[in-house]
Amino acid sequence: MAERTVTIASASGLHARPAAIFSKAAGEQPATVTIEKAGGNAVQASSILMLMTLGAGHGDEVTLKAEGDGADESVAALAELLEKDLDAEE
């Protein structure tokens, strides 16, 4: 299992546009990826509805976990997204 903790850079957190971009990217990964805030439940990273339940805001730390083929690559790609301000992405 691959695992990485990252800080959310988007000004609006993991809501609206950033959540849509992130969930789409998660769905394209070869591995199954979950995301969780400390003390919270892990949710499917590819589900925009589940992402909204996290309540992850700007500056919050979240942990990505992946299992299966390409787990390390999937976590790295999604962590890189979270470390960008997705509100500013075109």
Automatic annotation (TrEMBL):
Major localisation: cytoplasm
CDD domains: PTS-HPr_like (cd00367)
InterPro entries reported for this sequence: HPr, HPr-like, HPr-like_sf, PTS_HPr_His_P_site
Domain of life: Bacteria
Compartmental location: Cytoplasm
One GO process term, biological-process aspect: phosphoenolpyruvate-dependent sugar phosphotransferase system
GO CC annotation terms, alphabetical: cytoplasm
Pfam families linked: PTS-HPr
Alphabetical keyword list: Cytoplasm, Phosphotransferase system
Cytoplasm in keyword set: yes
Domain HPr: 1-89
Function: General (non sugar-specific) component of the phosphoenolpyruvate-dependent sugar phosphotransferase system (sugar PTS). This major carbohydrate active-transport system catalyzes the phosphorylation of incoming sugar substrates concomitantly with their translocation across the cell membrane. The phosphoryl group from phosphoenolpyruvate (PEP) is transferred to the phosphoryl carrier protein HPr by enzyme I. Phospho-HPr then transfers it to the PTS EIIA domain.
Name listed for the protein in its UniProt record: Phosphocarrier protein HPr
Organism: Brachybacterium endophyticum
